[in-house]
Amino acid sequence: MLNLVKRLLRNLFSQSTPPCQAFLTNEYQHHNQRRQEHLACLGLDIAQKTVMEVGAGIGDHTSFFVDRGCDVVSTEAREENIKILRSRFPNLRTFVLDLDNPPSTFNETFDIVYCYGLLYHLKEPENAIKFMATCCKSMLLLETCVSFGDGDELYPCYEDTSNPTQAISGHGCRPTRRWLYNRLKDHFEHVYLPKTQPNNEQFPIDWTLPAPKKGLTRAVFVASREALNNDTLIESIPDKQTRH
């Protein structure tokens, strides 16, 4: 309880980190590059699609879809982040969207919903998945931090609200891959994981080993309305993957 009080007081009185200072570090940019290289290698039918990007931050992933001729709508919960996003992509439609509190009146649908690096910053990830599924006509592309283990567990946690890359509510989660697979399966006919992982230390390739004592661990999911004839994907949760 004492640690929780200290955390809350620090968040209350600390000065927020400027978005560019948080997002444009060498480590963060390297991580983004490896994730997008990996997504490109999956050979998914992405070009010329309508895309809703959620949790876009300052737009570091947005050009991946713009460069492929997609009609992109980018969303972000933090006003300070979306101002930078709009300055970088002035011709794109953008709006503020908090996936912990999605609007009940939103009724647009998109071929692809892109949710990389957001779900673990949410207090209500199950509701967020449901909302994204209602917006998704074809594929939901999801990458998030996860916990090791075979159980169906959510593992809520606290995050620093003063950091523009972290949960705006101060509450996040580190679900197991099984939890995510099951929640996605509630809304999509087919749920896949890649046979490979991005070439970054945060993406484990042997899930039979003990969980790392430090650092984040991540996984990639592809949820689809239709069966995908794609040799890079497996319709189950693999114990071992290879490095892209």
What do you see in this structure?
The chain has 244 residues and is α/β, with parallel strands linked by helices. The protein has one domain (2-243): Vaccinia Virus protein VP39 (Rossmann fold, 3-Layer(aba) Sandwich). Helix content is 28%, strand content 23%. It contains 7 helices and 12 strands. It has helices at residues 2-13, 19-23, 26-41, 62-66, 79-88, 125-135, 177-185, and strands at 50-53, 71-76, 93-96, 110-116, 136-145, 156-158, 171-173, 190-194, 196-197, 218-224, 233-234, 242-243. The strands form 3 sheets. Strands 3-2-1-4-5-10-8-11 form an 8-stranded mixed sheet. Helix 6 (125-135) links the parallel strand 4 (110-116) and strand 5. The radius of gyration is 17 Å and the shape is globular. The N and C termini lie far apart (42 Å). Mean pLDDT is 92; it is low at 8-14.
